[in-house]
């Protein structure tokens, strides 16, 4: 018997609407394919340390900023948990600290993920399509390059409507 392609799915959550769309996509996937879901939010302490070292922040500011990011992360993960619960889907959540891309890779490896979902979107500007950068997209290349499983950037335009209909 062949195991399902997406038995374990990791969803990267950040402070963007695109990551919430990735969560909705993952919840629908879990509902349809009965895969295990985990949402992870990474507090980028690597960048905070760099900002402190380069004297952009003093240590107290960095600590306060990190506490605020932890609180934000918990709010976003609680929201994602509520979205999953509303659709009768189980989801595990975790807050991690460190460099975003490496923490995402480690979380995926630890859960033996077959798929990582990233939020992403495109915007039209002057009739050419450019990619908007959110908190994940600056790390997307590293996640895609180093992941030991497939990575999907969710750009489903109708995801909110599909989520509501499910």
Structural features, described:
This protein is α/β, with parallel strands linked by helices and 166 residues long. It is globular and about 55 Å long. The chain starts with 7 loop residues before the first strand and ends with a helix.
Strand content: 15-25%
What is the H/E string?
EHEHHEHEEEHEH
Low-confidence stretches: 123-136
**Strand order within the widest beta sheet:** 3-2-1-4-7
Distance between the termini: 29 Å
The largest pleated sheet is described as: 5 strands, parallel
Mean pLDDT: 86
Strands, count: 7
User: What overall geometry do the principal axes of the alpha carbons give?
Assistant: globular
Tally the helices. Answer: 6
- Determine Rg (CA atoms, Å): 16 Å
List the helices and strands and how they pair.
Layout: E1 8-13, H1 17-33, E2 36-43, H2 45-53, H3 59-86, E3 91-97, H4 100-110, E4 115-119, E5 122-125, E6 128-131, H5 137-146, E7 150-154, H6 159-165
Parallel strand pairs: 1-2, 1-4, 2-3, 4-7
Antiparallel strand pairs: 5-6
Helix pairs in contact: 1-3, 1-6, 2-3, 4-5
Short account of what is shown:
By secondary structure, the chain is of the alpha/beta class. The chain has helices spanning 17-33, 45-53, 59-86, 100-110, 137-146, 159-165; strands at residues 8-13, 36-43, 91-97, 115-119, 122-125, 128-131, 150-154.
């Amino acid at each position: 018997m062949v195991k399902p392609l997406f038995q374990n799915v990791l969803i990267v959550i950040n402070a963007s609407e695109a990551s919430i769309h990735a969560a909705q996509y993952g919840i629908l996937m879990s509902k349809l394919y009965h895969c295990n879901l985990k949402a992870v939010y990474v507090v980028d302490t690597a960048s905070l340390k760099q900002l402190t070292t380069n004297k952009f922040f003093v240590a107290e500011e960095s600590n306060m900023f990190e506490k605020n990011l932890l609180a934000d992360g918990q709010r976003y993960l609680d929201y994602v948990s509520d979205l999953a619960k509303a659709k009768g889907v189980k989801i595990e959540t975790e807050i991690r600290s460190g460099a975003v891309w490496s923490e995402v890779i480690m979380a995926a490896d630890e859960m033996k993920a077959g798929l990582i979902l990233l939020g992403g979107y495109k915007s039209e500007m002057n009739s050419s399509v450019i990619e908007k950068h959110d908190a994940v997209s600056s790390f997307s290349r590293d996640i895609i390059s180093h992941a030991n499983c497939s990575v999907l950037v969710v750009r489903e335009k109708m995801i909110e409507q599909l989520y509501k209909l499910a």
